[in-house]
Amino acid sequence: MKFLRNILIIVVPIYFIIIWVRNVLYDLGIIASRSYDLPIICVGNLSVGGTGKTPMIEYIIRLIQNDYKVATLSRGYKRKSTGFQLAGEGSSAETLGDEPFQFYSKFKSITVSVDGNRRRGIASLLSKSDSPEVILLDDAFQHRKVKAGLNILLTTYDELYVDDMLLPTGNLREPGSGAKRAHIIIVTKCPKSLKTNEKEQLRKKLRVRPHQQLFFSRISYSDFIYGRNTERSIYDLKAMDFTLVTGIANPRPLLDHLKGLDLNFDHLEFNDHHIFSEKELEMIGAKPIVLTTEKDYVRLKDAIQKDHLFYLPIETKLDKGDEFESLIRTFIGS
Fold this sequence. Notes:
The chain has helices spanning 2-7, 12-27, 53-64, 93-96, 98-106, 118-126, 196-206, 252-260, 278-285, 294-300, 321-333, and strands at residues 40-45, 70-74, 85-86, 111-114, 134-138, 150-156, 184-188, 213-221, 224-227, 230-233, 242-246, 265-269, 290-293, 309-312, 314-318. By secondary structure, the protein is α/β, with parallel strands linked by helices. It has two domains: 2-68 and 133-219 and 317-333, Rossmann fold (3-Layer(aba) Sandwich), CATH 3.40.50; 223-312, Rossmann fold, CATH 3.40.50. A nine-stranded mixed sheet has the order 3-4-2-5-1-6-7-8-15, with helices on both faces. The protein has a four-stranded parallel sheet with strand order 12-11-13-14. The longest helix has 16 residues, at 12-27.
């Protein structure tokens, strides 16, 4: 696969020109972006997956859900439904996509919706009698038909967008110059011990502009794992062998965390948003103990209705969290 991507480097200049021209047309207003009269916050990235968008959306939900009527609008990647869908009784990972269904499962006070056409999705949300006061756009940084009032751009500590190149050889959806549209840049998945001088070096490397705010975040893993009506300490796994199942873009931080706890496990790795076949579900269901991610759990729990399936929750921990919250609330209030 890597060899093929290297060969396709000849396509990169063509892709660059297409995306660059598209962005210029939007920047000049030749192609119109639509603005709205309510606060719209976009959380996205320049690269393909794995930067921590879902935990970041959840972080913002926790900040504001008690004070505002919040709605999330996602594309609903790999869902089996079409058009605009509103989460409700009878919704599943198949009808919403795994990440939106995760939002719906965890946050009952918010509205969760999906639509590949973000303009149509926003219009559908605003037509509700109980319309939202704030909309969180999930993974819509390149969806320029909508002009979000606040753009939050994520990039991972180990794979900064300035060190990457465009698809198909690299993982960038658009050139790094697109970062200028961001109001907030967050370097995600940082080590816990990140020092002040390293942060300043990263600021210079990312060429953060005067109008932008830079933050750093890390993954925080729970000390407990959860299953069907079951909760237990993750340290209980030290006494047993188990199977880790992942269908995420980058499982390396999770692997490092579990190995750091001195746990003994085998790893079944699948592609991001993997749709499990019957044979794979049978194989996973036959394992004595299965640990997975929260995103994978929402797809596996109905197919494997056994008590030996668990997930490990994660949360985003943000440096200068009070400053970030102040920026979010100031934007919404304005």
